[in-house]
Design a protein that fits this description.
Elements: H1 9-35, H2 39-60, H3 65-78, H4 90-96, H5 98-108, E1 118-119, E2 135-138, E3 143-146, E4 149-152, H6 153-167
Parallel strand pairs: 1-2
Antiparallel strand pairs: 2-3, 3-4
Helix pairs in contact: 1-2, 1-6
Length: 173
């Protein structure tokens, strides 16, 4: 699709339906996350949630030039701002490319301290060595962190719900 062409109506419908189904997958993952008490279940739910969020993001904010017009057309059709929180796939990338993050970490750090899969309702303090926390989740406020970056999953899910609502008149719920 070039800048001058429009999506075919069926393609538009299919892509909007995909946004709806991915938002349902994310909602299911969020429900599992809220009910989980075991570490592997929690992190599996978080990873599933991030993948579904990224799939919606890729439809609406593609990175390959060939598909950028499609993303713009869909955002305009649905009334979604270019700077929506879902446009940023940083956290999904941290999880998807975790192998690279590990290697880069050990290439640039001589510390033997490495803390991962941290589930803690308390905010890290200087004494708790937050610079060594790789992936952490605060189940009380829904904050997901990777090293010194954080994202509010509650806000992300609210933005996704808003997008799903905008899809209602184009695709069944």
């Amino acid at each position: 699709m070039t800048d001058n062409t429009k999506l075919k109506p069926l393609a538009e419908q299919v892509l909007i339906s995909e946004i709806v189904i991915q938002s349902k997958f994310a909602e299911m993952a969020a429900d599992r996350l809220a009910k989980s008490s075991e570490s592997v279940e929690i992190w599996g739910s978080i990873q599933s949630l991030l993948v579904a969020l990224a799939n919606v993001s890729k439809i609406l904010w593609p990175t390959r030039k060939k598909y950028m017009a499609r993303g713009k057309q869909l955002r305009e059709l649905l009334g979604i701002d270019d700077d929506n929180i879902l446009a940023d796939r940083t956290f999904r990338n941290h999880f998807e490319h975790y192998d690279e993050r590990i290697e880069d970490w050990f290439d640039s750090n001589n510390s033997a301290v490495y803390m991962d899969f941290r589930i803690d309702p308390f905010e890290p303090t200087r004494l708790s060595l937050p610079q060594f926390f790789h992936r952490s989740y605060n189940p009380i406020n829904g904050t997901l962190s990777f090293r010194n970056e954080s994202i509010d999953l509650v806000a992300v899910l609210a933005a996704l719900a808003e997008i799903r609502e905008k899809c209602r008149c184009f695709a069944p719920p």
